[in-house]
Amino acid sequence: QVQLVESGGGLVQAGGSLRLSCAASGSISWINDMGWYRQAPGKQRELVASINNGGMTNYADSVKGRFTISRDNAKNTVYLQMNSLKPEDTAVYSCYAHWKLFRDRESWGQGTQVTVSS
Predict the structure, then answer these.
(1) 57-59 and 46-52 as β-strands: parallel, antiparallel, unpaired?
(2) Of 43, 44, 105, 117, which is least packed with CB atoms within 10 Å of its CB?
(3) What single DSSP character describes residue 70?
(4) CB-side neighbour CA atoms (13 Å) of 56
């Protein structure tokens, strides 16, 4: 099993920055990729960013150039640095890990609220 613990959400003014952290534990050697989704009330869930075992990253067009996903393998942690935040970035951000033990599996963090004021 893979467990994820998120931190770093909060309140910030437009133009400000936040850094989200997602620490993985358990069967971490089986993780293929990790990343972040977000969902605002009444809107569909959106993949914000992801990073795979080879370090390849992927970003939603809405955040590209402002957000950076990175990993620290020694700490088994993935980060999402969010700069130049906009009110439309307000959402619940959830960390995920894709991993495989005999079959494809997913783990999710508890979600953390990010609120950007205008």
Answers:
(1) antiparallel
(2) 44
(3) E
(4) 4
Helix/strand/coil percent split, the chain, to 5: 5, 65, 30
* Residue 97 near residue 24, CB atoms below 8 Å: yes
Q: Which amino acid is at 50?
A: S
By the 8 A CB rule, do 57 and 50 touch?
A: yes
Task: Determine the straight-line distance between the first and last CA of the chain, rounded to whole angstroms.
Answer: 40
Distance of alpha carbon 53 from alpha carbon 105, whole angstroms = 16
Tens of pLDDT along the chain (118 residues) come to: 899 999 999 999 999 999 999 999 998 888 899 999 999 999 999 999 999 999 999 999 999 999 999 999 888 999 999 999 999 999 999 999 999 999 999 999 999 999 999 9
